[in-house]
Write a structure and sequence with these properties.
311 residues; Rossmann fold; 3 domains; five-stranded mixed beta sheet; four-stranded antiparallel beta sheet; 16 strands
Length: 311
């Protein structure tokens, strides 16, 4: 049951669509466009002229172009018992093709004739004559001939103008550069006209971290954006400073390393360690020596007189 309902719905939809398409086609006037006639024209020239005519007639949206490329006009005259391709004969040919109008073009002896007939009314709707050949048919349709036969062409539809939004971009850093959708625009600040939509804004400046943001530009809402750039952080080197570096002695000269207190403190510690070791060794074994007093000078300038004396 459900499947039957589905199939029925599909059929109804197809009928509605086909009916709408048929109705739209019926609203247009069917026009039989005959191949330009002329004994002095080659098949290639006739086909070229027919293409030019078809292109020009597409400007008129009220027409549905019908072509008859295999139609031989001489045979058609015999079939419809015509003595000439006049209005009566063209109406008869159009009725056979079930069209509403027929356009006939002929170039003969340097004269161009264009004839438009109404099939249901069996009457002439328009005629244009000038000097020229079948190739001139396209030129005629583009000028006075087209206007006389088919009327003034419809005005082309004007494109819908999109209202642009005034948008301002700025930065906290001078000479920063603006990019919109990865395209360089220019220096900030800048005010421009943008179509409503989503954009990717980016501002750059040498020595600063770039700032990027996606913004929806609309007719109503925010109309500006200002970026805050921050400097690129740098790592500071670790420096070990000598506490006595740069200090001067009483004479105004920089102290040498062997004249600094920290150097002689280290020496003193080392000598004390040596003395303690000597005392320990002096109490061991029979070959030990008696240990005297150790003498140290406080003044670094008298260091050469330091020594150990034995009894």
């Amino acid at each position: 049951m459900r499947r039957l309902a589905t199939v029925t719905g599909m059929v109804l939809a197809a009928v509605i669509l086909f009916g709408a398409g048929t109705l739209q086609a019926q609203n247009k006037t069917s026009l039989l466009l005959l191949t330009p006639d002329g004994e002095m024209l080659s098949d290639g020239e006739k086909a070229e002229a027919l293409g030019a005519l078809k292109k020009q007639l597409h400007i008129y949206e009220k027409y549905r172009i019908v072509e008859a490329p295999k139609l031989d006009l001489l045979e058609a005259m015999v079939d419809h018992e015509c003595l000439d391709l006049d209005t009566e004969c063209l109406v008869s040919i159009g009725a056979a093709y079930k069209v509403q109008q027929v356009l006939y073009t002929r170039a003969d002896g340097g004269a161009l004739t264009m004839l438009l007939v109404d099939v249901p009314g069996a009457k002439e709707l328009g005629r244009y004559e000038q000097k020229g050949d079948a190739k001139a048919a396209a030129i005629a349709l583009a000028g006075a001939g087209r206007t006389k036969i088919f009327g003034k062409p419809p005005e082309p539809a004007k494109p819908v103008e999109v209202k642009r939004v005034t948008f301002t971009i700025d930065s906290n850093v001078k000479d920063s550069v603006i990019f919109i959708n990865d395209k360089e625009i220019g220096p900030a600040p800048m005010t421009m006209k943008l179509k409503p939509g989503r954009y990717t804004f980016r501002i750059e400046r040498e020595g600063f971290l770039a700032v990027e943001e996606k913004i929806q530009v609309a007719e109503v809402g925010n109309k500006s954006w200002k970026a805050t750039l921050k400097p690129i952080p740098t790592k500071k080197p670790i420096v070990v400073v000598d506490p006595d570096a740069g200090k001067k002695d009483k004479k105004g000269e920089k102290k040498a390393f062997y004249k600094t207190w920290w150097f002689w403190t280290s020496v003193g510690v080392g000598v004390a360690a040596i003395t303690a070791t000597a005392v320990v060794l002096g109490t061991q074994g029979g070959d030990s020596y008696s240990v005297g007093t150790a003498k140290f000078s406080i003044d670094p300038s008298s260091a050469q007189y330091d020594g150990i004396f034995y009894k």
